C-alpha cells in the first residue's frame, strides 16, 4: 500500500563560498601561489593584474588615435580622467562591501538556452561597472626588498643519485658491472643505505634488464659503490656505515679501537654499557673515551649530508612578519607569492557586446550565462582571499596581544598559557577557524621564525596559584638536563622533585612526556664518559 508522508527537516549546509574560504584559510603562503594559478587555469575570467601592460597599451592606442584625429587627444584625456575616477570609486565600493552573487545551477547550459530569461533578468550593471573594480591587491604586504633579501633561496644543487652516477661512469667497470652499479645506486634510500637483499636486487636485474648475475658479483660492485663520496654510502646497516667511514680515517690507535667497538661490542655501545665494553676489549678509560669520540663524529645518515643529499633543503616561508618599532608592533602578511588579481576586462567587454546585441539572440544569451558564471566564480575567489587575509590578521593580532611579553623580549619563559578557545573568544570566531589558521602557518620575528602552534600551550598549576605555560616548564626542564652531570644524569624522579621545589606542581609521568617531546633520551642513554 502506497502512502504519502510529509516531513519537515531543518539542516545546515555550507555554501560554496564558505567551502572555498575554508580551503584557502588552511593553506600556507608557500602554497597560495599554486592554488591561485590553478584557479586562473580553470576560470578564464580571473587573471593577474599586471598594471604596467595596460598603461603601455593605452599609451600606444592614444598615439595611434592622435595621428588620425588631432582633436582626439582632448577626448582621450577626458575619458581617461573619468575612467580613473570610476576605478577609484568602484575599488572603494568593493572594499566596503562585496555583493554575494546568485548561485547558478550546474546543469544550466546550452540545453536551457531556449528558456533563458530576457535581458532584464541579467543585471548587467553589476558587471559593466566592474571593468577595473575587481582589481585586487594583497592587504598587509610587507616591504618587498626586505622579503627578497631575507627569504632564503631554494637549493638548486644536484641530487645524491646524480653524483653517484657520475662517479660510477668514471669507475673502471665493464658494461655488465656498470648495469649492476646503476641498479645498486637506484636501491639507495634517503638515508644512504641499501636495505634490500642482494638476492632481490639480482632478481630485479633478471626481470628488468634480462641480466643474470650472482650475489658475489653484486657484492664486488657494491664495494666499488661504497668507495664513492660521501663516505658510508651504500651500507646495509649502521655498523657497516660507520666502519666504511672509519676505513678512510688514518689508522691510528683510536680508529682501531673504534673499529673493535663497532665489530665486537656494538650492542653494548648502542646501550652505552661502557663498563662491559672495557671488560671485553680490555681498554683504559682514556682509550675508551677517545674511541667513543671518534665514533660520535661519524655520520649515521650519509644520504642526507651535504648539498647533494637526497633530501632537498627546505626553507620555511613565514606567513606573517612582525617588527618592533620602539615598542610598537607592526604586523604584516607575507604576500610575495600571491599575485594581484582582477576580473578579466575581456569578459566585461563581452557583456557590453551582449547589451548592444539583439535582445532575442539565443546563442548570445548562452554565452552571457557562461560568462556570468565565470565572473561570479572569480568574484567569489577574490572575496575568499580577502576574507582569508582579514581572518589571518585578526587571529595573529590576538596572539600578539596575548603573548606581548614574549614578542617584546623573545624569552620563552614569558609565554603565557594559551589555547585555541582563548583566541576564538577574543576574535569572535569558531575554534575550528583558529585551528585552521594555526595549522602550518608561521611568523617571522626579530628572534627567529616560529610556527603558530608554538604559542599554544597548556597551563601547569604553580604554588603561587597562577598557571605557567608548559613551554616555560619545558624550557626549565631542558635547562636542568643541560646542567646535569653527564657521568650521573638526572632521572625523571629527580627532575620531578627539582621542578616541584621550584613551585611547579607536576607529576613524574608529565616530566617523562615533556622530555620525550624535547627528544631527550632517558638518563641511562644520556650518560657520557
UniProtKB/TrEMBL annotation:
Origin species:
Hymenobacter humi
For this protein, the record's Pfam families field holds: Sigma54_AID (PF00309), Sigma54_CBD (PF04963), Sigma54_DBD (PF04552)
Which top-level group of life is the source organism from? Answer: Bacteria
In residue numbers, the region (Disordered) covers 36-158
Q: Which family does it belong to?
A: Belongs to the sigma-54 factor family.
Q: What's the name of its gene?
A: rpoN
Q: Where is the RNA polymerase sigma factor 54 DNA-binding domain?
A: 369-527
Biased composition, class Acidic residues, residue ranges: 46-86, 120-133
Which protein is depicted? RNA polymerase factor sigma-54
Keywords, A to Z, come to: DNA-binding, DNA-directed RNA polymerase, Nucleotidyltransferase, Sigma factor, Transcription, Transcription regulation, Transferase
Amino acid at each position: 500500500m502506497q502512502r504519502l508522508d510529509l516531513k519537515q527537516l531543518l539542516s545546515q549546509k555550507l555554501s560554496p563560498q564558505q567551502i572555498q574560504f575554508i580551503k584557502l584559510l588552511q593553506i600556507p603562503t608557500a602554497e597560495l601561489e599554486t592554488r591561485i594559478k590553478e584557479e586562473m587555469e580553470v576560470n578564464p575570467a580571473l587573471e593577474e593584474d599586471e598594471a604596467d601592460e595596460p598603461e603601455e597599451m593605452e599609451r600606444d592606442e592614444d598615439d595611434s588615435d592622435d595621428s588620425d584625429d588631432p582633436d582626439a587627444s582632448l577626448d582621450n584625456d577626458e575619458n581617461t580622467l573619468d575612467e580613473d575616477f570610476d576605478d577609484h570609486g568602484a575599488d572603494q565600493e568593493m572594499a566596503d562591501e562585496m555583493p554575494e552573487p546568485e548561485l547558478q545551477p550546474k546543469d544550466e547550459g546550452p540545453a536551457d538556452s531556449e528558456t533563458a530569461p530576457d535581458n532584464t533578468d541579467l543585471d548587467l550593471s553589476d558587471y559593466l561597472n566592474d571593468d577595473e573594480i575587481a582589481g585586487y591587491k594583497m592587504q598587509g604586504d610587507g616591504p618587498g626588498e626586505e622579503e627578497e633579501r631575507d627569504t632564503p633561496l631554494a637549493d638548486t644543487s644536484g641530487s645524491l643519485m646524480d653524483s653517484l652516477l657520475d662517479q660510477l661512469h668514471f669507475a673502471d667497470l665493464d658494461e655488465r658491472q656498470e648495469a649492476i652499479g646503476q641498479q645498486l645506486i637506484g636501491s639507495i634510500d634517503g638515508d644512504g643505505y641499501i636495505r634490500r637483499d642482494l638476492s632481490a636486487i639480482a632478481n630485479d636485474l633478471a626481470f628488468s634488464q634480462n641480466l643474470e648475475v650472482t650475489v658475489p658479483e653484486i657484492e664486488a660492485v657494491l664495494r666499488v659503490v661504497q668507495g664513492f663520496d660521501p663516505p658510508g654510502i651504500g651500507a646495509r646497516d649502521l655498523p657497516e656505515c660507520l666502519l666504511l667511514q672509519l676505513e678512510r680515517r688514518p689508522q691510528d690507535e683510536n680508529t682501531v679501537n673504534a673499529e673493535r667497538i663497532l665489530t665486537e661490542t656494538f650492542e653494548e655501545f648502542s646501550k652505552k654499557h661502557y663498563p662491559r665494553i672495557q671488560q671485553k676489549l680490555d681498554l683504559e678509560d682514556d682509550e675508551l673515551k677517545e674511541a667513543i669520540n671518534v665514533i660520535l663524529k661519524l655520520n649515521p645518515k650519509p644520504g642526507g649530508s651535504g648539498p647533494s643529499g637526497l633530501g632537498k633543503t627546505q626553507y620555511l616561508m613565514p606567513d606573517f612578519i612582525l617588527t618592533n618599532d620602539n615598542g610598537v608592533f607592526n604586523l604584516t602578511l607575507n604576500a610575495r607569492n600571491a599575485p594581484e588579481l582582477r576580473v578579466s576586462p575581456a569578459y566585461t567587454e563581452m557583456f557590453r557586446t551582449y547589451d548592444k546585441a539583439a535582445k532575442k539572440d539565443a546563442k548570445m544569451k548562452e554565452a552571457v550565462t557562461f560568462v556570468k558564471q565565470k565572473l561570479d566564480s572569480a568574484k567569489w575567489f577574490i572575496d575568499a582571499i580577502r576574507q582569508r587575509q582579514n581572518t589571518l590578521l585578526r587571529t595573529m593580532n590576538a596572539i600578539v596581544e596575548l603573548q606581548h611579553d614574549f614578542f617584546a623580549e623573545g624569552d620563552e619563559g614569558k609565554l603565557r598559557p594559551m589555547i585555541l578557545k582563548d583566541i576564538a573568544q577574543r576574535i569572535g570566531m569558531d575554534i575550528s577557524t583558529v585551528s585552521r589558521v594555526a595549522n602550518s602557518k608561521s611568523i617571522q620575528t626579530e628572534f627567529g621564525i616560529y610556527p603558530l602552534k608554538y604559542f599554544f600551550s597548556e597551563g601547569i598549576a604553580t604554588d603561587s596559584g597562577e598557571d605557567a605555560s608548559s613551554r616555560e616548564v619545558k624550557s626549565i626542564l631542558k635547562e636542568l638536563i643541560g646542567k646535569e652531570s653527564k657521568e650521573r644524569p638526572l632521572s625523571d624522579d629527580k627532575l620531578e622533585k627539582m621542578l616541584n621545589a621550584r613551585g611547579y606542581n607536576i607529576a613524574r609521568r608529565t616530566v617523562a612526556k615533556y622530555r620525550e617531546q624535547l627528544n631527550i633520551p632517558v638518563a641511562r642513554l644520556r650518560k657520557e664518559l
